[in-house]
Each structure stands twice: as C-alpha cells, then as structure tokens.
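Reviewers of the previous submission asked for a worked example of the structure-prediction workflow described in the proposal, so we include one complete record here. The input consisted solely of the amino acid sequence. No template or homolog information was supplied to the procedure at any stage.
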Amino acid sequence: MSKPTHPKVIARRRHRYEKLWKLRRKFAQATSELERQRIFEKARRVSPELTWEQFITPLQVRGLI
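From that input alone, the workflow returned the following structure tokens.
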C-alpha cells in the first residue's frame, strides 16, 4: 500500500497547525484590539484562507476568550 500523503505535506500541515495555536494563545493574552488585529494578520499569512470566526472559534470553545 502506498502512503496517503507525502511526509513533507504532513509536516507542513502539522507545523501550520502548531503555528496557528501559538498565535491563538498570544491572541487570547492580548489586551488591545490593535494587538489582536496584528496577531490575526500574522495568522492570515500562515493560512490565507482563514477567517476571523475560524480563528477565534477554538478559543471560545475552550473558554480562553
């Protein structure tokens, strides 16, 4: 059987997931709206198709914001 995905693709996906969570934690700790907007812009660079709702929903589910 062949592998479903190449290892580099899996590694890239895992790194993107970890980077987004790092930015989400910073977002939850941010105090000003300007700081939160800058963090979200960085997240958009990591994952361009990410929306505001998709970014903050995991934080709301876990009660971090």
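Residues 7-61 form one domain. We consider this example representative of the routine output the project will generate in years two and three.
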